[in-house]
Amino acid sequence: MTNDEHARHKARMIKKKQHIDQRIADANESRGIIIVLTGNGKGKTTAAFGNVVRCVGHGYQAGVIQFIKGDWPCGERQLLQQTGQVAFHVMKTGFTWDTQDKAIDIAATQEVWKAGKSMLSNANLRLVVLDEITYVLRYGYLSTEEVINALQQRPSMQSVIITGRGCPQVLIDMADTVSDIQPIKHAFDAGIKAQEGIDW
Ligand code: ATP
Ligand code: MG
């Protein structure tokens, strides 16, 4: 690198640092946030659990509601339950195309939502994950308005992560951070089976 290039690089970095420092100084509000992880690509649930690990690593308590999932083994749940810092509530009946019974699905949704509401009013929980909640909202098994009310009334330092494809626009509008994960490729489309440790 010539002296000239070195000086130009340094000037650019100084400018960049000033810009970043200014943005950090401007962000002076401290409160819990709503994060939406949506889109058809792989990584929504794993990202949500990455955030739970981050939270628990700092000594906080977290809560996870797993809509849709069923209570088959799931690596992240098996590990995080051992910490004693993460409360789990799983919708026991599994996928809606397995039960094929709308009344059972609605009852199971309402049951698991009770636990969700209780987590959203528990100030000891720094983070609450509502995993795959978008599906029960889209099917109308749970009222979006009710979820919005519970989100609005939650403790001020509590953050919430909502995951699932096709997130309703009202929740996107309400959220503070929204990521739309898009599939560029997925191994399943090439005929590769879902794998323990990778997909669950
Ligand atoms: P993950 O749990 O791996 O983070 P996800 O939460 O983003 O995935 P979901 O829509 O909840 O994705 O689907 C759950 C399962 O479907 C996972 O096993 C995941 O690998 C798989 N999956 C995700 N995206 C795709 C896709 N585009 N095509 C096929 N299978 C997918
Ligand atoms: Mg998921």
From TrEMBL:
It comes from the Bacteria. One of its GO terms (molecular function) is corrinoid adenosyltransferase activity. Its main location: cytoplasm. It catalyses: 2 cob(II)alamin + reduced [electron-transfer flavoprotein] + 2 ATP = 2 adenosylcob(III)alamin + 2 triphosphate + oxidized [electron-transfer flavoprotein] + 3 H(+); 2 cob(II)yrinate a,c diamide + reduced [electron-transfer flavoprotein] + 2 ATP = 2 adenosylcob(III)yrinate a,c-diamide + 2 triphosphate + oxidized [electron-transfer flavoprotein] + 3 H(+). It holds the Pfam family CobA_CobO_BtuR. It is found in: Cytoplasm. The keyword Cytoplasm applies. Pathway: Cofactor biosynthesis; adenosylcobalamin biosynthesis; adenosylcobalamin from cob(II)yrinate a,c-diamide: step 2/7. It is an enzyme of class 2 (transferase). Keywords: ATP-binding, Cobalamin biosynthesis, Cytoplasm, Nucleotide-binding, Porphyrin biosynthesis, Transferase. InterPro entries: CblAdoTrfase_CobA (IPR003724), P-loop_NTPase (IPR027417). CDD domains: CobA_ACA. Belongs to the Cob(I)alamin adenosyltransferase family. Required for both de novo synthesis of the corrin ring for the assimilation of exogenous corrinoids. Participates in the adenosylation of a variety of incomplete and complete corrinoids. This is Corrinoid adenosyltransferase. It comes from Zooshikella harenae.
